[in-house]
C-alpha cells in the first residue's frame, strides 16, 4: 500500500515519516518550516525541501534518486581542455550567500530558491554544514554550486553560470575534490538530460537510502577543502 504525505505543523518538533513505501514521485510531507534542525533531519532521512514561494513547504524523497561519483563523471574533451587551461580561479566557502542568490535568478524551474530558502541555507552555512564552490574569472563570480553535507554525503542543491561552462567546472571540481576528501555519496536529487551528459545516474530509492545510512556513520571534514579538479 502506498503511503500519503503527512502534514507538519510549523514550529513542531522535527519529524518525518520514513520514505519507504511512498509513491515514486516522492512527496512525503507538507508544511513545517525550514528550521535548521528540521532541515538537517530531512537530509539524514533522504528527504529534501522543494517548493515555490506560493506553496507550503513540500518535502520529497523521489524514486529513483540521482547521484554522481568520479567513476561515472563524464567530462568532454572540450571541458577537460578548459579545465587544464585553468583560465579561472576556484575557491571554497568564500561567497556562499552570493552563490545561492545567483542560483535563485533566472531559473526555468520557477522560484524554489526564494528568500526563505536562502535564509535557511545561509544559516546552515554558518553552522559549517552547507558549502559552496566558487568559480572566478577576471575577478568576477562566473559560476558556482552549493550543497549540504551530512557525514560522508554531499547533497548538491543548485549551480549557476555567468560564463560558458563555469557551472560544469564547478560541478567537476566539486565532485573530484570532495571524493578525495572522503565523501562517498554525492546526491543531485533529480536527473535531467543535461546531468545525464555529465554522468549523473539514477539509483533506486532503496539503494540510495542504504548508501546514505552508511555515509552518515562517517565523519568528513570539508571546512578547508583542498580543491583539485584534475583526474
Overview of this protein structure:
This protein has a seven-stranded mixed β-sheet, sandwiched between helices. The protein contains seven helices and eleven strands. The chain is α+β, with helices and mostly antiparallel strands and 231 residues long. It has helices spanning 36-44, 77-85, 96-103, 115-126, 166-180, 193-197, 205-216, and strands spanning 6-8, 27-31, 48-49, 58-60, 65-67, 89-92, 130-137, 140-150, 153-161, 185-189, 201-203. The chain folds into two domains: 6-63, Leucyl/phenylalanyl-tRNA-protein transferase, N-terminal domain (Alpha-Beta Plaits, 2-Layer Sandwich); 66-216, Leucyl/phenylalanyl-tRNA-protein transferase, C-terminal domain (Aminopeptidase). The mean pLDDT is 94.
- Approximate shape: globular
Strand order of the largest sheet: 6-7-8-9-10-5-11
Q: Biggest β-sheet: count, sense, barrel?
A: 7 strands, mixed
Average pLDDT, all residues = 94
Order of helices and strands: EEHEEEHEHHEEEHEHEH
The first-to-last residue Cα distance is 45 Å
CATH homologous superfamily assignment of the largest domain:
Leucyl/phenylalanyl-tRNA-protein transferase, C-terminal domain
Proportion of β residues?
15-25%
Helical content class: 25-40%
Q: Judging by the overall fold, what is the CATH architecture of the largest domain?
A: 3-Layer(aba) Sandwich
Structurally, the number of domains stands at 2
Amino acid at each position: 500500500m502506498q503511503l500519503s504525505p503527512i502534514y507538519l505543523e510549523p514550529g513542531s518538533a522535527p519529524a518525518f515519516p520514513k520514505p519507504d513505501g511512498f509513491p515514486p514521485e516522492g512527496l512525503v510531507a507538507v508544511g513545517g518550516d525550514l528550521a535548521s534542525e528540521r532541515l538537517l533531519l530531512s537530509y539524514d532521512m533522504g528527504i529534501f525541501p522543494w517548493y515555490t514561494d506560493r506553496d507550503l513547504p513540500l518535502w520529497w524523497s523521489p524514486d529513483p534518486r540521482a547521484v554522481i561519483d568520479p567513476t561515472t563523471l563524464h567530462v568532454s574533451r572540450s571541458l577537460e581542455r578548459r579545465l587544464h587551461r585553468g583560465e579561472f580561479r576556484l575557491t571554497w566557502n568564500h561567497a556562499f550567500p552570493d552563490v545561492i542568490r545567483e542560483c535563485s535568478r533566472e531559473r526555468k524551474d520557477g522560484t524554489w530558491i526564494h528568500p526563505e530558502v536562502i535564509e535557511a541555507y545561509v544559516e546552515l552555512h554558518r553552522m559549517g554544514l552547507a558549502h559552496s564552490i566558487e568559480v572566478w574569472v577576471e575577478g568576477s563570480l562566473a559560476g558556482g554550486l552549493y550543497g549540504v553535507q551530512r557525514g560522508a554525503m554531499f547533497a548538491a542543491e543548485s549551480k549557476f553560470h555567468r560564463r560558458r561552462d563555469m557551472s560544469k567546472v564547478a560541478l567537476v571540481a566539486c565532485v573530484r575534490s570532495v571524493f578525495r576528501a572522503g565523501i562517498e555519496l554525492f546526491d543531485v536529487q533529480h536527473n535531467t538530460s543535461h546531468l545525464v551528459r555529465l554522468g549523473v545516474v539514477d539509483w533506486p530509492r532503496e539503494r540510495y537510502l542504504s548508501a546514505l545510512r552508511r555515509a552518515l556513520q562517517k565523519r568528513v571534514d570539508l571546512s578547508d577543502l583542498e580543491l583539485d579538479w584534475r583526474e
